[in-house]
Write a structure and sequence with these properties.
366 residues, mainly alpha, Serine Threonine Protein Phosphatase 5, Tetratricopeptide repeat
Length: 366
C-alpha cells in the first residue's frame, strides 16, 4: 500500500529542553524502536559536539537507497530532535516513506502523528489508514489502533476497512480477545458480509488462544455441521478445551456427546464427570444430570439426599427440570421434612425459568 504525505507548517526551530522532554515522553515507544534498529545505522548517527549538516546522513541514505529501517530512524531523528532541532513534519514524511517500504513501525508512528496532529494536520481517518497498513504488515496492536482511529474519524468519513476485518486480523496475529467479537460479526453479518465459515475459523482460533466461549461456539458448529462439515471428534475436543477453561455449557455439551455416543465412544462415567464440572461452572443442566444419576443409582450408588441437593443447586442455576424435582422432593418428604411452601418456591422458579416446561407451572398452587 502506497501512502501519500500531507503536512502543515515546519516545526524546525529549537523549542528548548522542556519541549524536547515532552516529545521524548510522548514518543518513548517509538524511541525504543529507533534504538532497536541502531545496528543498521552504525556510523551514520554518531553525534559530535560540532554542528551537523542540515540533511542528516540517515535521511540521505533513506532517499538514495530506500532502506526501510534507515528511513524510520531518520524520521525519528527529526521527530525527537536528536539533531538539536525538531521537525515533526519532515519526520512524519520519512516515517510514511518507511511505511511504504513495508516497515510496520513506520506506519504505526506515522499514524500516531496524524491521530494527534503532530507536525501534520490532524486526520483520524488518515491515522486509521496508516494503522491498517501496520496491521497488514503484522503489527497486532495497530489493528486495534486502526479500529479506534476509524471510529473516532467516522464523523468525516467511513472506515476504509470494516471493524470486523480489523478485529479478525488482530485475532490472526494472536490477540485472543478480538477473536470472538470478530467471529460474532462475521457469523451475524453485522457491519460486514456474512461469512459463517470464516466465523467458525475465528472461533477456533479464539479457542486456541484460550477463550472458553470461543471453544463452545466452535464446538457447537462442528457438532451441528450446518456451516462447516460435521466433525464430532473435533467438536468434542473443542468443547473439552472450553470445559477446561471454565465454560459450563462446554462441559455440559461434551457430557451429552459421551452420554449419547455422538461421534465418540459412549462412556456414561466420563459423561457424568463432565456434567459434574458443568454444574460446578454454573450450568444447572449439569446439576440436574448429576442429581438424576444419584437418584437412579446406575452409574453411582443411590443417594437420595445428594440427588435433592443437586436438584436444588440446578434450580438455582437456571434448570427448570431441576426445579421440578427439587419441588417434588419437598412435597413428598422422602429425604427432608415435607414443606409445601418450599416446594412452591421451586415450582414457581421453574415456571419462571421456562414457562414452556409446563409441569412446574401446573404444580404452582396445585
Amino acid at each position: 500500500m502506497k501512502l501519500s504525505f500531507q503536512c502543515v507548517g515546519n516545526h524546525g526551530s529549537n523549542r528548548g529542553l522542556g519541549y524536547i522532554l515532552t516529545a521524548l515522553s510522548r514518543s518513548f515507544s517509538a524511541l525504543w524502536a529507533f534504538f532497536a534498529v541502531g545496528s543498521t545505522l552504525s556510523g551514520l548517527l554518531f553525534l559530535t559536539g560540532a554542528a551537523l549538516a542540515q540533511t542528516s546522513p540517515a535521511q540521505k541514505v533513506c532517499e538514495e537507497r530506500e532502506i526501510a529501517d534507515i528511513c524510520f530512524a531518520a524520521g525519528m531523528e527529526y521527530i525527537l530532535g536528536m539533531r538539536g532541532e525538531m521537525n515533526e513534519a519532515l519526520g512524519t514524511e520519512l516515517l510514511v516513506k518507511a511505511c511504504n517500504l513495508d516497515a510496520p513501525k513506520g506506519c504505526k508512528v506515522a499514524g500516531d502523528q496524524f491521530l494527534h496532529g503532530r507536525g501534520v494536520a490532524k486526520d483520524k481517518n488518515r491515522a486509521a489508514e496508516l494503522y491498517i497498513a501496520a496491521c497488514d504488515l503484522g503489527d497486532a496492536e495497530s489493528c486495534s489502533l486502526a479500529k479506534s482511529a476509524a471510529a473516532a474519524g467516522s464523523e468525516v468519513g467511513a472506515s476504509p476497512v470494516p471493524v470486523a476485518e480489523l478485529e479478525a486480523k488482530a485475532c490472526e496475529l494472536g490477540e485472543a480477545e478480538k477473536c470472538r467479537s470478530a467471529a460474532d460479526a462475521f457469523y451475524d453479518g453485522k457491519g460486514i458480509a456474512q461469512d459463517r465459515v470464516r466465523a467458525v475459523s475465528l472461533y477456533s482460533l479464539g479457542c486456541k488462544y484460550g477463550d472458553a466461549e470461543s471453544c463452545f461456539e466452535a464446538g457447537i458448529q462442528y457438532l451441528a455441521g450446518e456451516n462447516v462439515g460435521a466433525d464430532h471428534a473435533l467438536s468434542a475436543e473443542l468443547l473439552e478445551q472450553g470445559c477446561k477453561l471454565g465454560d459450563g455449557p462446554s462441559c455440559f455439551e461434551v457430557g451429552v456427546q459421551y452420554n449419547l455416543s455422538s461421534g465418540i465412544p459412549k462412556d456414561e462415567r466420563v459423561a457424568l464427570e463432565f456434567f459434574f464440572q458443568a454444574c460446578e461452572h454454573y450450568d444447572g443442566r449439569g446439576c440436574f444430570h448429576v442429581g438424576s444419576a444419584y437418584s437412579q443409582g446406575e452409574i453411582v450408588a443411590t443417594d437420595k439426599k445428594k440427588s435433592l441437593e443437586y436438584m436444588e443447586k440446578g434450580c438455582e442455576r437456571w434448570s427448570a427440570n431441576a426445579c421440578f424435582f427439587a419441588g417434588l422432593g419437598y412435597r413428598q418428604g422422602e429425604v427432608v421434612n415435607e414443606d409445601e411452601d418450599r416446594a412452591q418456591e421451586f415450582f414457581l422458579r421453574g415456571c419462571e425459568i421456562d414457562p414452556d416446561f409446563g409441569m412446574n407451572c401446573q404444580m404452582v398452587e396445585q
